[in-house]
């Protein structure tokens, strides 16, 4: 009992005086898992990390992971590379240097834009300005508050009654900054672009934009720890947060999620234990016109379809894959960026309790996709700001195709 009280005191003390985490001389390696022995090694490191951090999970032979190696583990990492024959390619030599370049204040202008990554208040301020600038078209959505009391804000864009709906979800994983930036850029294009194809989808669908669905976690990545992924609820005496993309109530905890509160993939004490996912799902369930749900993550350059708990095919798998394949082919045309498409459990790994599984499995929404945006691991989660607009441009190209092809199949 005394030990638990000490742990709790330390946790609370840390919450009040925490300094911003730094990653000076931390290195990021791309590691190829070639056999079961290597897989077991990496899974053991994931369970007892001692400073190591995985940016992608070691789940099966034949895949690659990005592994963050702290300075004090360089000797250990060199040793296990030699003993286990690990193929490890250096991706980032100094993680802190990359973080500093990504978030340097000189990039941010007085007005909101896409030349830098902006914090929660700036994003929400911009959403408020759209409501004022486009009366009758943009309306505010505030579905509740996060664990720490931040509003979960969005906007609806609607040019006329009777449209089918498209939902855009960003930043459910806090460290995936480009996801929220992409969602806001697409929103801006729907309001300002004169391109006929953009105008067509803007005016013939109702759009629900939520660029920051995990505001506490996202703010924490700016103030305290750039690598933070989860919410900020009190998971245990020692650890905070649950993975909000393992917390949805469809096949909850059916693989690819952890019951350990300190894990990055901790699913939560129960389905919808997190106030953010509970309120978001409650709102989505009220939308009776929804035909398309698009979730945005990074990184890996994948277009994923449900489900995460099984490789079994969803009801309209063939059509969903056919539409998605045309979409990623269109995405490639602008900058040559290559994507792959597939079921979550096959394309990456088993991961149950995700938002797109719930939207498809419970609400039966016809077209549901999750984007894993740029890149393939050169920068990982720390994508340079000069890639925001190119990433968003090619993504919008593909969204247009999803909606056009969905119409051809009779989904809208």
Automatic annotation (TrEMBL):
<dbReference type="GO" id="GO:0006508">
    <property type="term" value="P:proteolysis"/>
</dbReference>
<comment type="function">
    <text>Involved in the digestion of the blood meal.</text>
</comment>
<keyword id="KW-1015">Disulfide bond</keyword>
<protein>
    <recommendedName>
        <fullName>Zinc carboxypeptidase A 1</fullName>
    </recommendedName>
</protein>
<dbReference type="GO" id="GO:0004181">
    <property type="term" value="F:metallocarboxypeptidase activity"/>
</dbReference>
<feature type="domain" description="Peptidase M14">
    <location>
        <begin position="116"/>
        <end position="406"/>
    </location>
</feature>
<keyword id="KW-0964">Secreted</keyword>
<keyword id="KW-0479">Metal-binding</keyword>
<keyword id="KW-0121">Carboxypeptidase</keyword>
<dbReference type="GO" id="GO:0008270">
    <property type="term" value="F:zinc ion binding"/>
</dbReference>
<keyword id="KW-0862">Zinc</keyword>
<dbReference type="InterPro" id="IPR057247">
    <property type="entry name" value="CARBOXYPEPT_ZN_2"/>
</dbReference>
<dbReference type="GO" id="GO:0005615">
    <property type="term" value="C:extracellular space"/>
</dbReference>
<dbReference type="InterPro" id="IPR000834">
    <property type="entry name" value="Peptidase_M14"/>
</dbReference>
<dbReference type="InterPro" id="IPR057246">
    <property type="entry name" value="CARBOXYPEPT_ZN_1"/>
</dbReference>
<feature type="signal peptide">
    <location>
        <begin position="1"/>
        <end position="18"/>
    </location>
</feature>
<keyword id="KW-0482">Metalloprotease</keyword>
<dbReference type="Pfam" id="PF00246">
    <property type="entry name" value="Peptidase_M14"/>
</dbReference>
<keyword id="KW-0732">Signal</keyword>
<dbReference type="InterPro" id="IPR036990">
    <property type="entry name" value="M14A-like_propep"/>
</dbReference>
<keyword id="KW-0645">Protease</keyword>
<comment type="similarity">
    <text>Belongs to the peptidase M14 family.</text>
</comment>
<feature type="active site" description="Proton donor/acceptor">
    <location>
        <position position="372"/>
    </location>
</feature>
<keyword id="KW-0378">Hydrolase</keyword>
<dbReference type="InterPro" id="IPR003146">
    <property type="entry name" value="M14A_act_pep"/>
</dbReference>
<dbReference type="Pfam" id="PF02244">
    <property type="entry name" value="Propep_M14"/>
</dbReference>
